[in-house]
Write a structure and sequence with these properties.
Layout lengths: L2 H8 L3 H10 L17 H15 L4 H13 L4 H40 L1
Helix pairs in contact: 4-5
Length: 117
């Protein structure tokens, strides 16, 4: 699959895909005989994972670390587990804060709706 096709499939710019590869957010992509990127199924799985982790709020550095650990193999499972567990805890705390803010906003909106009646 070409970089253009992958860009379209995942809604990411080609520059973003190149950046992800350059900084190590995804491993080096398979290349064709002519040297062009030729995304294979495994490459696509890495792109999907990077996109997911980025959407989950992981920093670029954390994703690079996760990929590095993954490529090192089974001996790094504990570190990967801890990295993902910490991000899960951070996201859960953020969600609690957002839920509280939403509740407060809903209360204010309801209060103003009543006053407008």
């Amino acid at each position: 699959m070409t970089i253009k096709e992958v860009s379209r499939k995942y809604g990411m710019s080609q520059d973003t895909l190149r950046y992800y590869e350059r900084v190590g957010m995804i491993p080096k992509v398979t290349r064709s005989a002519s040297g062009h990127r030729d995304y294979q199924e495994e490459d696509l799985m890495w792109v999907e994972l990077a996109k997911c982790l980025r959407n989950a709020g992981l920093t670029v550095e954390a994703i690079v670390e996760y990929v590095r650990l993954s490529l090192e193999g089974e001996g790094t499972i504990r570190q990967r587990y801890e990295l993902l567990k910490q991000q899960h805890e951070d996201l859960t705390a953020q969600r609690r804060q957002m839920d509280e803010a939403l509740k407060r906003l809903e209360h204010k909106i309801e209060m103003y709706a009543q006053k407008l009646k």
